[in-house]
Design goal:
By secondary structure, the protein is α/β, with parallel strands linked by helices. It has eight helices and seven strands. It starts with a helix and ends in an 8-residue tail after the last strand.
Length: 208
């Protein structure tokens, strides 16, 4: 992602934190009900109990909290490009690991069973191409995952679009995901104007 776009996005979150404090409004990710649905979709990737989980664009580590509330204990790492969010998350969950990191320029440190990203790449970029950024993110995450990658994003199948958001064509995302692995699931069935793409490791007999 272009540095100018990163600065713009991080600035938006700083402004929201100042206005709303550390909570769901600061993340602009909808209601808690929609967030719970979204997290349930992420968790459906597989059995995360005891797994190494990386949350790209972790925000305030709400997915980690959601898992813990359901008795799902994980070895959690959260990445975000906004230092203020990482600082707050580290104070909230000192037992977890957090880093200010841009995976496109700094990569992913180590390997993880599951890599998730929720509502992270929906801001419409001014100096870069959203779809190209998403392709890069999926490629990097898939290469560092041992079980699955799950990313949710806004869908183009809507009757209204906010100018500040980017709406992805699910078919294009699916097509690119299939170039990385033959085991891909697209979920567009849950009650939100979004979809999730799941990338699993190939079956041994299917590897090139």
């Amino acid at each position: 992602m272009n540095e100018q776009d990163k600065d713009i996005i991080a600035g938006r979150y700083r402004d929201r934190l100042k206005e709303h404090g550390p909570g769901i409004q600061a993340l602009a990710s909808g209601t808690t009900e929609r967030r719970d649905i979204r997290f349930g979709v992420l968790n459906s990737a597989g059995d995360m109990q005891g797994a190494r989980v990386l949350d790209v664009g972790c925000g305030l580590a709400d997915f980690y909290a959601w898992l813990g509330e359901r008795g799902i204990q994980v070895d959690y790492t959260g990445y975000d490009i906004t230092p203020e969010l990482i600082e707050l998350s580290a104070k909230r969950f000192p037992e977890a690991h957090f880093e200010v990191r841009d995976i496109q320029t700094q990569g992913i440190s180590g390997r993880f069973d599951y890599i998730v990203s929720s509502q992270t790449f929906n801001n419409r970029l001014s100096h870069d191409d959203n779809f190209e950024v998403m392709k890069d993110v999926l490629r990097i995450c898939h290469a560092a995952s041992d079980r699955a990658v799950v990313v949710d994003m806004m869908t183009a199948y809507v009757d209204f679009q906010e100018p500040r958001l980017f709406y992805y064509q699910p078919e294009e995302i699916f097509r690119y995901a299939k170039s990385l692995t033959k085991r891909v699931t697209l979920r567009h069935d849950y009650p939100a104007y979004e979809f999730a793409i799941f990338l699993y490791q190939d079956f041994t007999g299917w590897r090139k």
